[in-house]
Amino acid sequence: MVGRLPLWRPRKKGSFWAVTLVKNEIDIIELSVRHFVDQGAERVLVADNGSTDGTLELLRRLAEELPIIVIEDRLTAYHQGEKMSFLARAAWRGGADWVVPFDADELWYAPAGTLRGHLAASPSSIIDANIFNAYPIDGEPGPYRVDTVRHDFTQCCFRSHPVARLANGNHTVNVLGRKSNEINMLHIPWRSKEQMRMKVTQGWAAIEATGAEVGFDGHWGEMSEAKESAIDEIWASIALGVETELDFGYKARGSLARIEPSTWTHWPDDFPAESTS
User: 117 with 205, same domain?
Assistant: First the structure.
């Protein structure tokens, strides 16, 4: 990692830092960074992994007006767990009480009030975020259609710790203590067909650079072998609702609810979540 990391500061009770690793996310990174600032983040720590689409330059401009720390990750290989763990420990050193590890395509919401207020009042040490996948309408950004059945996996946020170690995907962390899962997250993985194609290509290239076998991450392996016709078919299912057996790991499993997340300050009480059973 290259760049100026925060100096050591005593823990600021009730604060949280959001930390992320990004590459070529210029279409959504400003939305997610501003979202976490609006939710009360003390700092947003971003490591850019060699973006070529202007993401790094945009982040540097945003850092002039927002509490963002931008550094560069020049290691091509995936190693996400190790890199995110490094960022989480940097947040601890900077005085964070809580750490929220996120991807650029994620918007996290508390059940009421801001994320900062919810974390500050929580008795837990780890909170798992329930994931709801969102899809663009007619291939355009926001509003979105959201799957009312939550994703199989969750992602975690946690009280900062000097030796916190995150797993790949930010699904688990080695911090001990009480665990809960009242936070929800909108996940917007696919925003355009070109963005999907780029994500498939760069994601698998990063995994291959580790020397890992295809089994390293199942849906990335599936995506790496996809032909252009498969990308066309999956995008048609997302943008137009065309039925397909193809998946890439984010296929809707329930009914779709139209939402406008830019109007949300917290997860709405009337969101029509369905049972996974």
Answer: no
CB atoms within 10 A of CB 42: 19
Q: Check whether residue 183 and residue 223 sit in a common domain.
A: no
CA-to-CA distance for 197 and 12, rounded, in angstroms? 42
Domain, as residue range, for 71: 16-187
pTM of the model: 0.88
Quote the CA–CA distance of 87 and 30 in Å, as a whole number: 19
CA angle 149/34/59 to nearest 5° reads 115
Same domain, 125 and 163: yes
Tell me the pLDDT tens digit for each residue of 53-71: 999 999 999 999 999 999 9
Residue type, 206: A
Domain assignment present for 256: no
Shared-domain flag, residues 87 and 110: yes
Flag whether 69 is in a domain.
yes
Q: Indicate whether 54 and 171 sit together in one domain.
A: yes
List C-alpha distances in Å: 96 to 12, 48, 133, 207. 6, 21, 28, 30
pLDDT in tens, 72-112: 998 877 688 999 999 999 999 999 999 999 999 999 999 99
pLDDT digits (tens, 9 = 90+) for 189-221: 888 888 888 877 766 666 666 665 544 455 555
The b/e string for 83-121 (b: 16+ C-beta within 10 A; e otherwise) is bbbbbbbbbbebbbbbbbbbbbbbbbbbeeebbbebbbe
Residue 77 contacts residue 83 (beta carbons within 8 Å)? no
Cβ-based neighbour number of residue 175 at 10 Å? 19
Residues 84 and 211 in one domain: no
The enclosing domain of 104 has a CATH number of 3.90.550.10
